[in-house]
Amino acid sequence: MKTNLFNFNRVGLLFQRYFAERFQTELIYWSIMVIVFIFIRNSAPVIEGLILIAGVFYAARFFREIHYPGNGVAYFMIPASQLEKLTVGVVMTSFYYFAMMIIAYVIGNLLGTFLNNTIASMNISIIGFNFFHHSLLQWKLFGISTEPWFIEKEHTNFLLYLFELFLVGQSVYLLGSIYFKRNPFFATFLSLIVVQLFLFILLLIELKLFFGSTYSINFGINAFGLGRIVSHIFKVAVWALPPFLWVVSYFRLTEKQI
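Structure (tokenized):
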């Protein structure tokens, strides 16, 4: 029974199928990413934003073929279980994509710094201005930042925290790629807004009922340390949410087959 549900040989064949069908596309895509990183290599906020946004676009389109009759029938006819197909989707959209982004960043950073310093050595000036100056090789993405652009968090490991956010985003949009047929990225984005507004309103109602006035809410948060409790709950949720959404994605993919 376990062999029918999950088999590493079949998973390996699914990976082979993916790269056999998309090798040229993948090569072009990552070459473009290297070129992009050449120009933005020393701008940490832009690098992080690119990784997060490009990643969710990639995840939102991963299962697009299952929504079209011809491609969908061919996909579900592949002799592999839905768990194996989802495993490939999770690995490709989360771990593979993030690793390839880091590799593209490293290559782009090395090439960009080398080209910049090479041109700077030539003392080429345009209209009397020299736009290229020697610069040291910097690794903004691997550094330790006290003030990341996305949230105030002291002594945050840049790369690890980015991966946490990336993993959550990928799991949400991977589910969206299975659930929504048209415009899965925007449909998932709008769904997130609705869910967040609902949770925010629900939280305000609960705090209002428990503490009463706004002053009491602020006093209660400070007195009972609710801010710290919420912070710990958020940390746990960041790591617990992706596995939960992968489970939901599995059942949704199974329903889609039926």
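Residues 82-121 form the longest helix (40 residues). Residues 121 and 134 are 8 Å apart (CA to CA).
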